[in-house]
Write a structure and sequence with these properties.
The complex is a heterodimer. Chain A is mostly helical. Chain A is built from 13 helices and no strands. The radius of gyration of chain A is 23 Å and the shape is globular. In chain B, helix 2 crosses helix 14. The chains are: A mainly alpha, B mainly alpha.
């Protein structure tokens, strides 16, 4: 009993240590300019002035809107395309299916930094630099979602679909009326995952957007860094604003997020 | 042709329902092929254009000199020869090598350690899991900014805390001796929650009976860990090693953290290859040279993952 209590306390301390930088971020965001490097966690004169400044002195709302738009559109289209591809890979019989799956699966090992330069040149040739299309389209395609959905579809019973096919339903109707409704839980998990990844993505938007009106929020706060090097209070306030949507998503969808990561570990 | 009665009535029924004259219909098999092709088309096309083509280009562009206006000149192996005479590239290779060699084992140990901690039945365990996982959902830009804020020389909270216990603060991001270590530390802090979840899933797959039997046989926890947990965790271990190797060699977290926290400095000590590739391409417009270095990363990754597959007999770790 005592042993278990001591153990719990140790884990609790480790947990608090892990998230302590985030407390410090919030604390820094609530401190005034003169207090920015003070050693207390609770500010002496807490203020919301920093948040006010971030939203009024800079077009921060615009950057947030860009991020919401890009991350939202990528998420919706990716879920749609990936669920179609996964349905075909899990349920339809056609020659070369396993090989195709292997090829798609192997692209999991390709990361953005490795293909960044040719992808940039390709997108430039397509005249998509500094455009929403350039931010959205290349971000849609990744094998992770296809893989996870395929694993999920392999695990659900086939009887319903077979009955529908016997009744004369086409493959589209099976996908739309049976497969999609059944995949709500995994789609919810993936939606959270995709939205987070795209909200947080930095390298790709950094590479293709020089026009400030197309900046996503991560690019904006990275540029604050140079502009406000001596005003950490503004930088921390902006950081809180940027981190908040992802933390909220995490609090509300923790279970789904964790489930989708767990599934990715099994093969 | 033999055709049973049921099938012909279905066909007849369909003809009547659709009110069409009989015309040659595709067989069920061919309709399935066409459906599959249509379902796969958007993703297959997208993956081909935005992943396949860049992948092929990244392996071939290194043989060209690419000007900022898109002019390609064949230069053979010149970019590759230049790479190995470029002190900055060799330095970034060294930084990346250290990053990989430290990060992969560190992630393995920390991830597994945390998973073992939060597997226990203790109160609030769900909250603790959430705490360890939380850094992973936050953007690396924010993470870089926050850690930089905490690590500022003298004024930063980390050095103030250390001063309170009588340790002289260090220039964590400004001293070439510490900067890469600091980037590594923050990388582990960011990634550990993800690997904790993967390990937790693996641990939960191990049947409880194994542990009970071992306890009845009088095994201590050290023995059960090496005798049961580690051997039965092999598939998970393989997955973790594979993904963490790719992440360490070419993941964008390395780029993001370096870009925000150090810009590759001090004295190029944190200039990971992924960062140097970006600099060469987008600050100096040396696209061909950057692509040559990126293809070097691809080859490194291929070698490392092949070694991993061979070393573990295709991920099964069957050594007997």
């Amino acid at each position: 009993m005592l042993q278990s209590a001591v153990f719990t306390v140790i884990v609790a301390i480790l947990g608090l240590l892990t998230i302590s930088p985030l407390f410090w971020m919030v604390s820094g965001a609530l401190k005034g300019q003169d207090e920015q490097y003070s050693f207390r966690l609770i500010p002496q004169n807490p203020t919301l002035e920093n948040f006010h400044y971030v939203f009024t002195a800079l077009p921060f709302a615009r950057y947030m809107a860009n991020s919401f738009f890009v991350a939202g559109v990528v998420t919706i289209i990716a879920l749609w395309f990936h669920s179609m591809a996964a349905y075909a890979l899990a349920r339809l019989r056609f020659p070369g299916r396993d090989f195709l799956f292997l090829v798609i699966f192997s692209t999991l090992l390709v990361s953005l930094p490795v293909i960044l330069v040719p992808l940039f040149i390709l997108v430039r040739e397509l005249h998509m630099l500094n455009s929403y299309a350039g931010l959205i389209v290349p971000a849609i395609f990744n094998a992770f979602g296809i893989f996870l959905l395929r694993q999920f579809y392999l695990g659900i019973p086939q009887e319903l679909e077979e009955a529908a096919i016997v009744d004369g339903a086409g493959y589209w109707r099976v996908y739309w009326n049976i497969i999609l409704p059944l995949s709500k839980p995994i789609l919810a998990a993936l939606a959270v995952f995709f939205f987070l990844a795209n909200w947080n993505s930095f390298l790709w938007p950094l590479t293709i957007t020089t026009d400030q009106s197309k900046w996503m929020v991560q690019i904006a706060i990275a540029s604050f860094q140079q502009q406000y090097a001596s005003s950490q209070n503004y930088i921390m306030a902006a950081s809180v604003v940027v981190a908040l949507p992802t933390m909220l998503l995490f609090f509300f969808f923790q279970r789904q997020l964790v489930e989708s990561i767990k599934t990715s570990g099994f093969k | 042709m033999t055709r049973n009665v049921d099938e012909s009535t279905i066909v007849a029924g369909r003809l009547v329902r659709e009110g069409q004259p009989a015309k040659p219909r595709l067989s069920r098999k061919h309709r399935e092929w066409i459906a599959a092709a249509l379902f796969l088309l958007p993703d297959a096309l997208g993956l081909f254009v935005f992943l396949g083509i860049p992948m092929v280009l990244s392996l071939s562009m290194g043989f060209f000199d690419v000007s900022g206006f898109g002019q390609y000149t064949w230069v053979g192996l010149r970019n590759y020869r230049e790479m190995f005479n470029d002190q900055l590239f060799l330095q970034s290779l060294k930084a990346s090598a250290i990053y990989v060699v430290v990060l992969v084992p560190a992630i393995y140990c920390v991830g597994l350690g945390l998973a073992l901690l939060v597997k226990q039945r203790i109160p609030f365990v769900g909250i603790f899991r959430g705490m360890f996982f939380l850094p992973y959902v936050i953007s690396l830009v924010v993470i870089g900014l926050v850690w930089q804020f905490m690590l500022v020389d003298q004024l930063g909270v980390v050095n103030q805390l250390l001063a309170n216990v009588g340790i002289t603060g260090k220039s964590w991001l400004g001293d070439p001796k510490f900067a890469l270590g600091t980037v590594l530390f923050v990388s582990v802090w960011f990634l550990m929650g993800y690997y904790m979840i993967i390990f937790l899933a693996g641990l939960q797959e191990i049947p409880r009976e194994f542990y009970e039997a071992a306890r009845l046989d009088g095994a201590n926890s050290f023995q059960t860990f090496w005798g049961i947990t580690i051997p039965l965790l092999k598939p998970t271990s393989f997955f973790v090693l594979l993904i963490s190797t790719v992440t360490a060699v070419a993941g964008s977290q390395g780029f993001d953290l370096v870009y925000i926290m150090t810009k590759g400095g001090p004295a190029n000590s944190t200039s990971l290859v992924v960062f140097y590739v970006y600099q060469q391409a987008f600050q100096y417009s040396h696209y061909g040279y950057a692509a040559a270095m990126a293809s070097f990363l691809v080859v490194t990754l291929l070698i490392l993952t092949t070694l991993l597959f061979i070393g573990t007999k295709g991920g099964r770790f069957d050594f007997d």
